[in-house]
Amino acid sequence: MVPKDVHAAITTIETKSIIQFVDWYPTGFKVGINYQPPTMVPGGDLAKVQQAVCMLSNTTAIADTWARLDHKSDLMCAKCAFVHWYMGEGTEEGEFSEGHGCP
Fold first, then answer.
1. Residue pLDDT, tens place only, 49-100
2. What pLDDT is stored for residue 68 in this prediction?
3. Which family is this protein grouped under (predicted)?
4. Measuring CA to CA, which residue among 88, 68, 86, 66 is closest to residue 96?
């Protein structure tokens, strides 16, 4: 995969109206290519592949998912669950109270 292939794919999506973009969407896409194949953990759930794709986008379509994750994080924080793991990695206890209001 080379940058021109990525840009050609984006142009195809825009011109063929495969995806309906709103009229006011930004005029460009930011593209970065990592030429290293993804790391596979032996015995893990993921298959070995030569290429992978990741897309970051600004959308409200996943707002409910983020809200559920935030709620679960708050529940864990209220019980101080897993805090010892983070502190063992160097996170200071005060950072939890700043970020989530943990006791």
1. 888 887 777 778 888 888 998 898 888 878 877 778 888 888 887 777 776 6
2. 92
3. Belongs to the tubulin family.
4. 86
Residues 6+ apart with CB under 8 A from 52: 37, 38
Residue 30's identity, in one-letter code, is K
23-38: per-residue pLDDT in tens? 776 666 777 788 888 8
Q: Which two tokens stand for residue 81?
A: 């669950």
Q: Could you give the CA distance from residue 89 to residue 92 in angstroms, rounded to a whole number?
A: 9
Enumerate the H helices of 1-103 as residue ranges: 3-15, 63-78, 83-88, 93-100
What average pLDDT does the chain have?
80
Residue found under tokens 């290429």:
51
62 alpha carbon, distance to own chain's centre? 11
Helices 63-78 and 93-100 pack at an angle, to 10 degrees, of 130
Q: Give the SS3 label for residue 59.
A: coil
